[in-house]
Structure formats: structure tokens, C-alpha cells
């Protein structure tokens, strides 16, 4: 299974999980300033930017460990662009990470995984 297909699978599973929890999906694979956000959703009155990391094994560590300082900076920049361009500054913002392990179907949702500084 190639990485692109694996990544899309993880995002699709994550969207279904979020919708089942009552989230409203606003956007997927949002691109701005050369950066990308996997999923943008509303959790009640909180605007949530979600990075999905999908792995077929734990051979190279936990999926969330791939969300490093550079990735966080990119997500925050793109999220600020989204907030401004969609006039959503009235919302509280949260940044989450979802890990999906294709090998066993395990999904781990990390709320408030990082903060914009």
C-alpha cells in the first residue's frame, strides 16, 4: 500500500470517527501558503484543526512523533489563514492530532495536542 493511499485511508477513517462524535467537518486537505491542514472541523463551538498521521506499523515510533516543530509551525500558519479568509475569529481554536494505525485499526485522538504561540 503506497503512502498516499494510506494517508487518505487514515483521513477517511478519522472523518468518520469525528462525525460519529458529532463534529461538523468544514474542510479537508486545506492548502494555504504552501502548507496543508488535513481536517478542519467544529466541535460544538470550538474550531478544530486536525493533523492525521497514519502508520502501517510502529517500527519507526508513534505516529504523533512525526508532528514536529516545523509541522506545528506550518499548521498554525495555515490555520491563521483559514480563520482570516473565512471570517472565523469569533471561535475558540484547538489543535488536535489523530493517529491511525492501519495494522490493527487503532485510532488515537489527541485533543489539544499543541498550542499556537
Task: List the keywords.
globular, single chain, 40% strand, 117 residues
In short:
The chain has 117 residues and is of the alpha+beta class. Helices cover 30% and strands 40% of the residues.
Please give a structural write-up:
With 117 residues, the protein is an alpha+beta fold. The protein has one domain: Trna Endonuclease, Chain: A, domain 1 (3-Layer(aba) Sandwich), CATH 3.40.1350.10. Helices cover 30% and strands 40% of the residues. The chain has helices at residues 3-20, 69-85, and strands at residues 24-32, 35-43, 46-55, 92-101, 106-114. Strands 1-2-3-4-5 form a five-stranded mixed sheet.
What fraction of residues sit in β-strands?
35-45%
* Total strands: 5
Low-confidence stretches are none
The largest sheet is:
5 strands, mixed
SSE-based structural type: alpha+beta
Number of helices: 2
Order of strands across the main sheet: 1-2-3-4-5
Q: Which architecture per CATH?
A: 3-Layer(aba) Sandwich
* Helical percentage: 25-40%
Overall tally of domains:
1
Shape: globular
The CATH class is identified as Alpha Beta
Q: Terminal Cα separation, in Å? A: 37 Å
Task: Annotate the secondary structure layout.
Elements: H1 3-20, E1 24-32, E2 35-43, E3 46-55, H2 69-85, E4 92-101, E5 106-114
Parallel strand pairs: 3-4
Antiparallel strand pairs: 1-2, 2-3, 4-5
